[in-house]
Design a protein that fits this description.
alpha/beta; globular; Rossmann fold; 2 domains; 5 strands; 5-stranded parallel sheet; 49% helix
Length: 227
């Protein structure tokens, strides 16, 4: 089998740290080597994710080498209103349906830019539903312990929303905002990585179907031979 190299364009330092320190080591053991690249110019701190900025980075990575793959890790609720497929989103869709629609439209838009780059094979867009912190709700006990709060507070949120990836996308109800309401000690980059490591990728995959589908797709890249 062939190893696979994947550049993941991420929206901020939280996602960059997660990919580099939590996800990449696990995937490397499976022959899939992940490299997180922060979107935009040096100094970008995340948020306000515009398609024109993402498109530039994605296209550049696709053009650099023909034997590598490109993916993304963007929060759904942070993308701008002009993102391909964003205007087609309706509230009745599930989290996975929203993400799937955006990913299809994003792939189509990138393919239209560089039809010569085998985009359908090499580009795997992924949108976190609704932001990175949703993954931390995969284990109520671990998250509650890290925040030094009662586990029942986490379970109440999950009971309300159904599953981690369904935690509301509105800014005031986003996963990170809900965590901060429980305990303002939370710090996205450092604590996000620490909590994610304790929970583990396997548990996240079990509790977050759309995240699991992305990882499953990345795992299959090892057998691809683009040369």
């Amino acid at each position: 089998m062939n190893n696979a190299e994947v550049c993941i364009v991420v929206e901020g330092q939280t996602e960059q740290t997660f990919v580099r320190d939590v996800l990449a080591p696990e995937m490397a053991a499976k022959g899939v080597f992940l490299h997180a690249a922060l979107i935009g110019k040096p100094g970008h701190k995340g948020g306000n994710i515009r398609f024109d900025r993402a498109r530039t980075d994605i296209v550049n990575f696709l053009k650099q080498r023909s034997d590598t793959f490109v993916s993304t890790m963007f929060d759904y609720f942070r993308i701008d209103s002009n993102w391909p497929g964003r205007s087609d989103i309706v509230t009745t869709l599930s989290a996975a349906e929203k993400a799937g629609l955006l990913e299809r439209k994003t792939l189509e838009a990138i393919e239209a830019c560089v039809p010569e780059c085998d985009v359908k094979t090499r580009f795997i867009p992924y949108f976190g539903m609704h932001e990175f912190e949703a993954l931390l709700f995969s284990n109520s006990a671990v998250l509650a312990a890290a925040l030094n709060i009662e586990v029942s507070l986490i379970k109440t949120i999950l009971a309300e929303c159904g599953e981690p990836e369904e935690i509301n996308e509105h800014p005031e109800n986003a996963p990170s905002k809900r965590i901060l309401l429980l305990n303002q000690v939370y710090r996205k980059v450092a604590m996000g990585k620490s909590i994610a490591k304790t929970i583990g990728i396997t548990t996240m995959r079990d509790q977050c179907p759309h995240f699991n589908a992305w990882i499953a797709t990345l795992e299959k890249l090892r057998i691809a031979n683009l040369t």
